[in-house]
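User: Continuing from earlier, I have the next pair ready.

Assistant: Great, send them over.

User: Here they are, in order.

Assistant: Folding the first of the pair now:
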Amino acid sequence: MNPASNIIPLFVILSLGGAFLISLLGKKIKSAPDILGVSTTLILCVLSFVAVRLVNIHGALIYSVGAWKAPIGISMVLDGLSSFMLVTVNLVAFCISVYSVNYMEKYTSKWKFYTLFLLMLAGMNGVIITGDIFNLFVFLEIASVASYALVAFGTEKHELEAAFKYAVMSGVGSLFILLSIVFLYSFTSTLNMADMSAILIQKGPSNIVLMVSVLFLMGFGLKAALVPFHAWLPDAHPAAPAPISAMLSGVLIKALGVYALCRIFYNVIGVNSTISSILMFMGALSMVVGVFLAIGQWDLKRLLAYHSISQIGYVVLGLGLGTPLGILGGLFHLFNHSIFKSLLFLNSGAIEYSTGTRDLRQMGGLAKKMPITSATSLIASMSIAGIPPFSGFWSKLLIIVAAVAAGRFIYAFWAVLASILTLASFMKVTKYAFMGSLKEALSGIKEVPALMKLSMCFLALICVIAGILLIPSINFIFMQKASDVVLEGAKYGNLFLGK
């Protein structure tokens, strides 16, 4: 086993260790939750970039838990796709943990928040690095259960109702995923994903694989909030505290939904034309339905929640196309959406923090009193709407060009239409929240505390840099490696069984 692979389990160990220490010290030392929460996410963020470098140097790495070799033992895998997702998840988690230092002051028991937050992060990191399909389910449930509690963190009536609805629907999704794993295990007699992939290729097409594919589509479709499995999301995201809304929309639905869907279908089961067509259809449907539902919303966080459904549609459409350009565009949009949607939810939290409202009709003229929030919100809005030169424009362009190149002109049309409607929706947000005259009731408001501004500015900077600097060399290394892993498909099995 390559010594460099010892970094892999740290993504779960550090998250769980941080959660344990905060639960132990948080009640006794007031500053402990903030210090431990931010420092843990910072270390994980740095390690994720180190992981990208290790993959570039050594290629794919595998860590055998307890020194038991695959396929008998449990494996943890670090390849281009998992290192890309680790950067995405842990970078956003670090920004949100910094933001939470000031924002969560208005809630009691900050130590409980950080404990649950790090448990959710441990679950997401576990899903990304595991090479064992049952452990994928276990980590998925750790992240899910922590997120249920975080949605209900304020303990108000609507928050508890949203958390209950989220828990029930997500539980149904988990049941579909568990049933799929049971059927696959009975068919292949292994839980190691690489071994499973090799056996499925050997056995060829079967009705069991077809049934499992349908169950996985429903299960991970629920986790990713794809239409028609999206009903839980518009309630859950607005109900949660702003940092958790950012985490749920920014990375949770991608790690538990899109990443797992991509890994299972491309690297384990294998994608055929039917699955590809279903993914493209669900992606286009999510794009259009999500944006149409968003336009009529006046609750800022609810509006953003519907846009999460729409933007995930772009990612799934790109992945469903199955072409090198489509997959690269889908993964690039996954990263971009994690950044600009997290920023938008942090902006909404900053507005609510200062004004006490999320209703756009009760706002107006906030740019005069909250210039940092206004500027960062404008950058994020332009990025999600696909306005050049911001990052969202390039990833959407790649997906649209890929659809045209593949002869999928209808899907390209819907992608363009959804982008235009997204722009209209965020012009409405900018007009009602930040433009115009300041309402008399809001004359005493001021900009949010320094750490909240710091997180928003950092995420806004990434939106700008990813658009201006990274596109001229679109194959920048960590994204191209991720795309290659998806394109290799079922070769994933041979790669890791040989190590």
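And the other member of the pair:
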Amino acid sequence: MTVVITGACGHVGANLVRTLIDKGRPTRCLVHVNTRALEGLNTEIARGDMCDVDSLCRAFEGADVVYHLAACISLSMGDWHRLEKINVLGTRNVVEACRRTGVRRLVHFSSIHALTQEPMSVPVDESRPLVESREYPPYDRSKAAAELEVRRGIEQGLDAIIINPTAITGPYDYQPSYFGEALLSLARRSLPALVTGGFDWVDVRDVVAGALRAGETAPTGAKYLLSGHWVSMVDIAAMVAEITGVPAKRLVVPLWLARVGAPFIQAASRLNGKRPLYTGVSLRALKSNRNISHERASRELGYQPRPFRETVTDTLRWFEENGYLTLPVNRKTGEPA
């Protein structure tokens, strides 16, 4: 039966729909405006709006499973109303549309940011409480609130499960994502400086594999953290330099100093028409809990994230093959460095 994907034109969606098509599953992709990531694919397109529950009902009609990926991502402390509209109320509409149309199962994609990070000395797992305080960034709070909408749906009889990936990277990153932009900036040597700190990064293909397995086998109400590997920004820069042959920036700024300069970086980025990568929110994330446990997913789903270097190599190769990046050519081999 048909699988519906909301947010199919995003990074995870572009990978998920290709995997489902390869498996021979009929797919229907809910799109709002942009369809670039779906061009040339054998999939049904359904126009819809997360704020219009009737359009969601039309898109979900006859669906067996809905993978809910659509979300608004923000690195700002001032985007609550926009995030609430798409991430919270939009998820409420998805739950309602699933119930109205008799969808068998909803797989909801949340985020590691929905969970509290403290205490830092204890690994984060599925038992961590959701964030609530306004001290947390609006994106974090919106993803936590969206999980509560799914839980309410479960209480009303909906068969749903929740997936919490860490920071996703990998190929088919058409927009590109914030981290995709960071990799491109490192490969072009256009990032002003490196900062201390790091995050848990996970390959989008591993997230898709884990989510599909969970969608097939997990009990109603199950929740899985799909994490990868904690790697510092300095080590990522060194890795990119090794893969591309483009020397890494030598200037490394401590997080406290980067936070002081963040407002100026944001202002400069806006003047240049670019999304700022270093904001108070993103810098705060780079000092979050280093130990994100995927033990439950490994035990119950056979989940095993691949080496991070493989992810970075494949992502840079995809960017190059799709015209986002030109890498220097190795003079001896004629191949990219």
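Worth noting for the second one:
Residues 330-337 have pLDDT under 50 and may be disordered. Residues 2-175+200-228+290-306 form a domain with the Rossmann fold fold (CATH 3.40.50.720).
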